[in-house]
Specification:
Elements (H helix, E strand, L loop, with lengths): L12 E2 L3 E6 L2 E2 L18 E2 L2 H15 L3 E4 L8 H14 L4 E6 L1 H6 L4 H7 L1 E9 L3 H6 L6 H13 L3 E8 L6 H14 L3 E6 L7 H6 L26 H17 L1 H8 L4 H27 L9 H5 L5 H9 L26
Parallel strand pairs: 2-5, 5-6, 6-7, 7-8, 8-9
Antiparallel strand pairs: 1-2, 3-4
Helix pairs in contact: 1-2, 2-4, 7-9, 9-11
Bound molecules: iron/sulfur cluster (SF4).
Length: about 350
């Protein structure tokens, strides 16, 4: 039971100044993406009682004036059955809430027949952890996704009036200009509403760390190992060029005519507000990131990842994975770093 009354809700906002909380319907994720820092924490996917959870969210609206619910789940939609019960229970409460969170594209495709319930319950945006549009890179990181499902998920969300934010990861060792160019063109063809660019960042307890162990570290400040700074050298490009692609991709995706239409002219007022708020944040982040890139020099001849962090720690992780019951990928979903938020990080487990 979460003691929501202990929080001064007026102090926490998100989604452009709306009163907000962070909740968690479930913990864990059955997928095996080898870079993921989350799954080592929660060994088994489990979820709260969907009806009680819906009632709790409704109480937050009625008793505390909360307007936005930000799901911090790694992967809330793993069980279609539980998720549907939750959506129907929340719809029955008839509260006016905005729901935002992350999930996997293949879960959205799986749930094509109940996406109207997502919308009716209040879902306004999903972050879809796509990471890349290159099948070889998706295989390298064991994403278990397909580009076809990623594309279809965005289309389905749009059809149901829900925004999609695609995450996109750069900094893989062998990428060249032509790979970035191809990626940008593929992203454009996916046509997500929003983009969140990240840098590949190996965590010591994940299998991906082993793959990256010999790569050169260029960011020696550990506080900057936060996905938003390039930390590893790439073989064919200096960091300034990676940053250039990073920023160029963001700029093209967020300022193309379709994005501008969705930001300023689309008929749905709520979605317009969400798009405008996101682009306002982007405009503030842009100069900040470029300024810090110029001000804080990176090292050119740093240690390898293993020298910097120590030996891999994924043995325990591997043992845990081996002892996990096998699940069908069709019965699962998932995400990534949740978007930044100023509401309290309270989990509702
Ligand atoms: S689907 Fe998302 S939460 Fe699950 S393992 Fe992959 S990155 Fe992690």
């Amino acid at each position: 039971m979460v003691r929501w009354e202990l929080i001064d809700h007026a102090r926490y906002s998100y989604w452009g100044g709306l009163r907000a909380v962070v909740v968690q319907f479930s913990r864990g994720c059955p997928h095996l993406c080898n870079y993921c820092g989350q799954r080592g924490f929660w060994t088994r996917w489990r979820h709260r009682d969907p009806v009680k959870f819906a009632k709790e969210l409704a109480r937050l609206r009625r008793e505390h004036g909360v307007q936005v619910i930000n799901f911090a789940d790694e992967n809330p939609t793993v069980s279609k059955k539980a998720w549907r019960i939750f959506l129907e229970a929340l719809i029955a409460e008839a509260v006016d809430l905005i729901l935002v969170g992350s999930t996997r594209a293949d879960d959205i495709v799986r749930d094509a027949d109940i996406l109207h319930l997502y919308k009716k319950a209040g879902w306004q945006r999903f972050l879809l952890g796509m990471e890349n549009t290159d099948e070889a890179t998706l295989a390298l990181i064991h994403k278990g996704a397909t580009t076809a499902a990623d594309r279809e998920a965005i289309r389905l969300l749009r059809r149901h009036g829900i925004l999609s934010m695609a995450t996109w990861v750069v900094g893989f060792e062998e990428k060249r200009d032509r790979d970035h160019w191809r990626g940008l063109r593929q992203l454009l063809s996916y046509d997500p509403d929003q983009i969140q660019m990240l840098y590949v960042t190996p965590h010591r307890w994940t299998p991906y760390f082993r793959l990256a162990a010999d790569r050169r570290v260029i960011q020696l400040d550990r506080r900057r190992w936060d996905y938003k700074h390039q930390v590893l050298a790439t073989r064919h490009m200096p960091p300034w060029r990676v940053l250039l692609w990073f920023k160029f991709t963001e700029m093209v995706l967020q300022s193309r005519p379709k994005a501008l239409y969705r930001t300023f002219l689309q008929p749905d007022r709520g979605l317009r507000h969400a798009m405008r708020w996101y682009s306002q944040m982007g405009r503030r982040v842009w100069p900040y990131e470029i300024f810090h890139f110029l001000r804080d020099p990176m090292t050119e001849h740093g240690p390898t990842v293993e020298q910097f962090w120590g030996a891999p720690q994924d043995d325990e992780e591997e043992a845990m994975v081996a002892s996990r019951p096998v699940r069908s990928v069709r019965d699962s979903g998932a995400p990534h770093p949740p978007p930044p938020m100023t509401a309290p990080q309270v989990t509702a487990t």
